[in-house]
Amino acid sequence: MKKFIVIMLALVTIYIVSNLKFRSIDITPLVKFSDNYVPCDADYNRFKSQGTTEFCTEFPSVPADVKKVIDWHPHNEEYKKCILLIAIKLYNRQFEMNHQTYELREGKSFYWNRFDSNNSILRAYSEILGENIGRRKLGGEFINPSMAVNYIEKHPEYLKYPEIKDIYNFSDSLSNQLGK
Predict the structure, then answer these.
(1) Cα separation of 149 and 162, whole Å?
(2) What is the reported pLDDT for 80?
């Protein structure tokens, strides 16, 4: 019984300390990154000038301060809004350039590499979209940016954010123009 009490006290202490750590993480770097993110900017310019369609297939790598927020910040509404904003921007760019979206994992071993800086947004995206623990940790069989549109359709509360609503409406009009 004494071991049980010691273990429980240790777990409670770890829980309290980890929650304090979460509260001290400032989300501002992620907010700025998501607001300023322009997907595949260099690829898009090349696409416009050459008509090439082989670009813009993954989330960007993030700076260290943004990775820290993604790794440690609790998944509250503001956090989810930022990740969804990045995903829907990528969706629009892929759809505008190629009239389709792409698998985001690019054949990489996502389970083993999920904490690399170039997978930070993909990991966060999977954790938001996942319907169960397996899908939150590994993603579904296929994971692409259009899933953000589906998620927003199921959770219309994200449309109260003008930046998401504007991009969501643009993606809807783009889909209608292309007959999708």
Answers:
(1) 15
(2) 94
